[in-house]
């Protein structure tokens, strides 16, 4: 793209536009299109080479979405009317094709500058504009800045001793080589058992010479329920799509199901079993966000949900040692307060002679050597290929690494070292006319991505439109409103079991990151109401 520099259009030097959007994933593309519809001149800066956001970076073996389609797609009729999927849980390759289709229908790329990494961004109060700089030295000015960098923009690689000594092949899950890695007959390791680690293990078990999973915490994975979809089946359902996209915003997580109206022990034991098997057999996140309404708040109810899960999973694992590590009788933390992965045959992998698991709580990783990983017991485990599936600087990493400077001269990176502070999960005090979505203090990881993005994206576009109507130079969230929002975020989570466990919801794995709720835990419908409520009178904003 370098040769497009200095030309007209999104790659131009000294770009001067209404809105600069950072990130070309689900959020950025949604905002761009909705802004264009309202007559704004908007451009996307994207660090990668194409549309698709997380689905361009996360191309590790087996990468597949854990929200079902058509929930996991845009509600735009012009896009869904001519698009069908091959399965209800598409992999990253099919999701990339989907973005190609979105581009074909909406001509998104004509307003995108790829390989454009934002390194400086500062709002000039006098002028009422953001000044933005990219890594290759281009500059842009825009009245509004929309940060759609996603919750997983900054990968996290633990500081393992001797990591750079390893002579074999090693990659982080979110930076897997485009051409893949041939593991046939090779000795492989997977570090981490989040969604990425689980999916890699499933993919490698049948083909690799050996797979060793380094587990710190078991993943309470539930059956995905993946199945093929026919074109006819999907076309016949399309008449319901408009209703369905309305409905998903009325459900807690932006899926097409929500929590039961009952508490766990309102049902008899037999009724509970029947209900749980129904969720289990349906698959997907229904056992998580469609379960009894009290189980994420009440320890006894949660234990019953865990015991059902453990009973079903333990029955699938032959080796007693592996069984106790993957699905222990005593849960290490409440069920569902860490995001469960959707699995297809994860547990069966451990019935293969070539797949093993190491409990790194009991036997931690000491160091990497030229040939493998040495554990505390002194054993050297030799590998040809290692997948580092240790996650991200979750939720805030994208925003804190784009050189954002406040009107008070501070940087977001410094300000958020101790803790993230936003107003409504869409704005940050001291950063006027900046909006973010699918990031900190919104529904984000507790929701279906496209649902969150559409609720927040529409709000952002309506806010900008209202500002223009009222001839405002800028709006800035007040510190008082920010404090109240934080209190609200914590109150929503403190009544639940979420704070009892270090998880991506509570800041993730990155050492030193604040142990605090990163998402809005009140559900999408309530969230949408609350952010809308701020608009009529600019509640919580200073307007200039
Ligand atoms: O990362 P994670 P991810 N030594 O942070 C372990 C979503 N996603 O890439 O649990 C050893 O979840 C850590 O252990 P512990 C996904 O939903 C979705 O898998 O902290 N291990 C954990 O097991 C999630 O929200 C999809 O004890 C270390 C793992 O690494 C987000 O993206 C696919 C360690 C990290 O798990 C990130 O998921 C992929 C260390 N020093 C991801 N540090 C789908 O749509 C951390 N770990 C299917």
Distance between the termini: 38 Å
Query: In oligomeric terms, what are we looking at?
Result: single chain
How confident overall, as mean pLDDT?
Answer: 96
In what range is the share of β-strand residues? 15-25%
Number of DSSP helices? Answer: 16
Tell me about this structure:
This is FAD/NAD(P)-binding domain-containing protein. This protein has 16 helices and 20 strands. The protein has helices at 26-37, 54-57, 77-80, 92-106, 195-204, 231-237, 241-248, 269-282, 286-289, 299-314, 320-326, 346-349, 412-418, 449-469, 479-494, 524-533, and strands at residues 15-22, 42-45, 112-113, 118-124, 129-134, 139-147, 169-172, 187-191, 210-215, 222-223, 342-343, 355-359, 365-368, 372-375, 380-382, 385-388, 404-405, 434-436, 475-477, 541-543. The strands form 5 sheets. Strands 1, 2, 3, 4, 5, 6, 17 and 18 form an 8-stranded mixed sheet that branches. Strands 7-16-8-9-12 form a 5-stranded parallel sheet, with helices on one face. Bound molecules: 3-acetylpyridine adenine dinucleotide. 3-acetylpyridine adenine dinucleotide is lined by residues 64-66, 152, 158, 173, 191-197, 216-217, 339, 360, 389-392, 445, 504, 508-509.
